[in-house]
């Protein structure tokens, strides 16, 4: 009432009740601003793909592929028990396919790969240019596809003309012969080949360019939306609209509200939602006075110290969460959300395990919500009723809503949930033959100067749209290591823990510690993996408590001396430490070192690379 909807910031993780949250807080209450999911997870790789290929998401057709490059990706762990590892392992066995893993960390994906390339971090764009160089020089690209379906090939060819494997070897620390071998293997297997980046490249300050250069390789060999290549993600069917069925017109009360222009943040002119790391500044300026959070743990995602201060400065913080996260602890109102097993669930997709089909999957609650917890539908419909919008939530529960959605494809919720999933449609390959590419030129674009928003941004920031590799430079493209801070630290995921979801669960943490030979009864936090080459001169041994200092801040962790990380590079798992759901906030949240300036300049995505120095804390072993 005091500040109006334009001052209430929305933030969503991957909730079950996402549509009900949007209906209440966006459409009805009219809060126009949300934090961009892309700015914490996949901005650089999906934005560059969208500008090049015209659709938001590509997806590897692993199971039919003959040559796969997991590029800054770890699907064997990050999708354990799911379709990604299944597809990869199936094709490795059935087609004798090749898997190349490009990662400074020896992951379980590296374990099953034919080739592990522990690349110098953040040099991926240089490697991609050299691969393009070889493919063109050896005339291994798909001439027909390039001729008819791409734009800007000549400019691309000129840009890679001098980017030889020898040039890239000096930058990436991968030898020139290996670069040639990967380039030839990738191109010869095409169209059944795929180069697919994600978080490893998305979390870099120069990540947009690196992803742009990797995507170009897929265009070059013409594997776009072809069997064994990259799929164009589409379900190929539509569910019914339950609101339409009931004659309910949903208003768009968020539409005409004023939103601030973030003059000092050039990427915000094309990134529709607010960048995660820009939120504290927006609060400080008074643009944001309140926060409504749904299933998300923003305090582990970037600029954490400033975020915590910002939450305290806000007049009203509301959250729906299942655990006491850093947000829950600061919230004025906490709605204890039911877990996934306590509420009905429906999802659709056109990717993955059934890469030639669109599918629907559903499940019923296994038990009723425990204690005071409520399903998302109950929380949002009760709030709506109090606010005078009860007529927009006429359903008994989400299951009834899903049932009306499924009637559009002649199914019932009961049926689909009984079977757990159903294949609904066929999604043909080469969809571009019919529809073209949804880009400025109607083609796959090597030359991104035709994208006005990118051209304008490049001009404003002093960057360029060309296929180039930009080294980190302390200004635009990420911070460099130096004598004082000689090691590069980043964080990410591990098989045993799912994002910020599991760190409160003994069993998950125990499994994680077991894997690296630790007893979690002795230390419950995350481990700092450090190569012996870096550990020995510093007198660091496995189990030592260490202090990690960056130009902005410092944290304490327990070291794991380990050859599975590249010399000069340190890795830990996110979701621990300050503001996390881990008991007693055990371990460290390295995003306490992250600040507003740690963003990738094109997509506004958080840059999670930090130059640091590490010293043992004497007499304080775990
Ligand atoms: N078990 C589990 N599964 C998950 C998640 C989880 O937390 N736990 N999270 C889910 C989510 S939200 C996502 S987005 C996906 C992500 O799925 P993936 O992207 O497949 O998984 P990550 O483990 O993030 O893989 C990124 C890899 O990049 C490496 N890397 C870091 N820096 C560089 C670099 O400079 N160059 C290169 N080439 N590699 C680099 C890291 O060491 C890491 O192994 O996983 C999903 N699945
Ligand atoms: N430092 C660092 N930050 C990262 C990443 C990283 O690698 N390092 N990865 C980034 C990526 S790829 C992504 S996608 C984002 C994801 O970031 P978020 O969207 O924040 O997702 P989670 O970390 O999974 O946090 C989920 C929240 O939901 C709560 N929750 C868990 N289960 C339930 C439930 O059943 N019901 C309800 N109501 N709540 C529940 C948890 O307590 C937690 O607070 O994080 C990004 N942030
Ligand atoms: Mo993610």
Number of helices in the DSSP assignment: 23
Q: Report Rg.
A: 24 Å
Shape: globular
Spatial order of strands in the largest sheet: 17-19-18-21-16-20
Helix content class: 25-40%
Structural class: alpha/beta
Alpha carbon gap, first and last residue:
51 Å
Q: Total strand count, please? A: 21
Unreliable runs = none
Bound molecules: ligand MGD, molybdenum atom
Written overview of the protein:
This protein is of the alpha/beta class and 622 residues long. Helices cover 31% and strands 16% of the residues. The strands form 6 sheets. Strands 17-19-18-21-16-20 form a 6-stranded mixed β-sheet. A 4-stranded parallel β-sheet has the order 1-9-10-11. Strands 5-4-3-7 form a 4-stranded parallel β-sheet. β10 (316-321), α16 (326-330) and β11 (333-336) form a beta-alpha-beta unit. α1 (18-28) packs parallel to α17 (376-386), α2 (43-53) packs across α12 (207-220) and α6 (124-137) packs across α10 (176-189). The protein is globular and about 65 Å long. The termini are far apart. One ligand MGD binds at residues 13, 40-41, 199, 295-298, 300-301, 320-323, 325, 337, 339-340, 491-493, 499-501, 574, 581, 591, 608. One ligand MGD is lined by residues 41, 71-75, 77-80, 102-105, 107, 119, 121-122, 124, 198-200, 204, 490, 492-493, 495, 497-499, 571.
